[in-house]
Specification:
Layout lengths: L17 E14 L2 E13 L4 E9 L2 H14 L2 E2 L11 E5 L2 E7 L6 E2 L2 H10 L4 E7 L3 H13 L4 H8 L3 H5 L2
Parallel strand pairs: 7-8
Antiparallel strand pairs: 1-2, 2-3, 3-4, 5-6, 6-8
Helix pairs in contact: 2-3
């Protein structure tokens, strides 16, 4: 697995972003005076047209944690190549104990993915994809692994530029 050095960052201004709550956890801290409860929320935002970002928010109230997560996600937006509602090619990525596999699918298949992966893929605008989560089901690591897999995707124009050939040569071998 190669690390992508040219991360495609995007500014959140003038984008109409939709947010999705992936997970909310109640965290308990035991102190001398008793238990203190707080909440952590993982949020994914995207414009459903190739831009996605994820964030983590922590606060003593659920609504505050979600709003902090949304603000954090807007700071980490990236551009992803989406081709005719699916991804350009098969991709695998690993983050921590989570391993994700993404495969392009024909039109009408839908998003065959579970939980955290589904939120990321729908936020980025993918409508047809086959996805499998292997290993850990921790939503933090699944979201990060899915975004890593999406960042490693390359469209045909990028491949042609990197190889220094024209677009027809990419498809004809």
């Amino acid at each position: 697995m190669s690390t992508n050095t040219n991360i495609r960052r995007v500014k959140s201004s003038d984008l109409e972003l939709k947010d999705r709550l992936v997970s909310i956890q109640r965290v308990t801290k035991v102190t001398k005076g008793g238990r203190t409860f707080s909440f952590s929320a993982i949020v994914v935002v995207g414009n459903e047209n190739g831009v996605v970002g994820y964030g983590l928010g922590k606060a003593s109230e659920v609504t505050s944690a979600i709003s902090k997560g949304i603000e954090d996600a807007k700071k980490n937006l990236v551009k992803v190549p989406v081709f005719k509602g699916t991804i350009p090619h098969e991709q695998e990525a690993k983050y921590g104990g989570a391993l994700v596999l993404l495969r392009p699918a024909s039109h009408g298949t839908g998003v065959k993915a579970g939980g955290a992966m589904r939120a990321v893929l729908e936020s980025v605008g993918v409508t047809d994809v086959l996805a499998k989560s292997k290993g850990s089901t921790n939503p933090h690591n699944l979201v990060k692994a899915t975004v890593m897999a999406l960042l490693e995707l390359r469209d045909a124009h990028t491949v042609a530029d990197q190889r220094g050939v024209n677009l027809n040569k990419v498809f004809n071998g």
